[in-house]
Design brief:
The chain is α/β, with parallel strands linked by helices and 247 residues long. It has a single domain, classed as Metal-dependent hydrolases (TIM Barrel). Helices cover 32% and strands 14% of the residues. Strands 1, 2, 3, 4, 5, 6, 7 and 8 form an 8-stranded mixed beta sheet that branches. Residues 5-79 form the Polymerase/histidinol phosphatase N-terminal domain.
């Protein structure tokens, strides 16, 4: 399977990444992407930028280096209520919100609590996707959460960094199980490189292997074409982005 969109990338603004948005755009172009989401960490993550950084994303050009820019954020899940650390002023200036567990913000609890938390995140309507769910530190009921995500049109991320073992050790087999469940219940899947350095943007060898092995239909993978991704945003209730009307 090929991919035209990378929905999870970071710049040095996240505090532990190493590239600029221009460098990321150049790499996205080099690797054949049509769109990429810039999704720096929200402010509760140590080293992350102030919320004004995200409010001001409106100044970003819609095309950099010939690649479309989706203005996004990787939000931290804060508590079992499913609350995210996204300031209300940020939502109107964002196209894409990933919600993720991060140990420095939400210490792992137990499977039942993680399941409740994720379902509350989904039902809140504030997240477009759930990030790097393969992390074994945050076990959850795959069927309950992924079925809930399907029902509320929230995408399930297959995170290429997790598959490569760069982070969240022990995620790989869980990612395969998550993809199998998503296929079974008909949930949408998104693919993110989770790049913290520009060279890995749009690099999805491990993700492609997983999706092909599991046999996930292309129409379930919103990153398989720019149009499919933009249609998913519309399904989520997002306003059309005029600059991308030709996709």
């Amino acid at each position: 399977m090929k991919f035209e969109v990378d929905t999870h990338t970071h710049t040095y603004a996240s505090g532990h990444a190493y590239s600029t948005v221009i460098e990321n755009a150049k790499s996205a172009h080099k690797h054949g992407l049509k769109l990429f989401c810039t999704t720096d960490h929200a402010s509760s993550m140590p080293g992350a930028p102030h919320y004004w950084f995200f409010v001001n994303q409106k100044v970003l050009s819609r095309f950099l280096e010939g690649v479309g820019v989706i203005r996004g954020i990787e939000a931290n899940i804060l508590n079992a209520k499913g609350e995210l650390d996204v300031h209300p002023h940020v939502y109107p200036n964002s196209d894409w919100v990933i919600a993720s567990f991060h140990e420095p913000v939400y210490p792992p609890v137990d499977k039942a609590t993680h399941t409740e938390t994720l379902m509350n995140v989904i039902k809140s309507g504030n997240a477009d996707a759930l990030g790097h769910l393969g992390n074994p530190a945050f076990d959850f009921d795959f069927e309950k959460v992924i079925t809930c995500a399907r029902d509320h049109h929230v995408a399930i991320e297959i995170n290429n960094s997790s598959l490569k073992g760069f982070s969240r050790q022990g995620s790989k087999e869980r990612c395969y199980e998550i993809a199998r469940m998503a296929k079974e219940v008909g949930a949408y899947i998104t693919t993110g490189s989770d790049s913290h350095f520009c060279e890995t943007i749009g690099q999805f060898a491990e993700t492609a292997t997983l999706l092909d092995a599991v046999g996930v239909p292309e129409e379930q993978v919103i990153t398989s074409s720019a149009r499919r991704f933009l249609d998913f945003l519309a399904l989520r209730g997002r306003e059309p982005i005029p600059e991308f009307s030709d996709f």
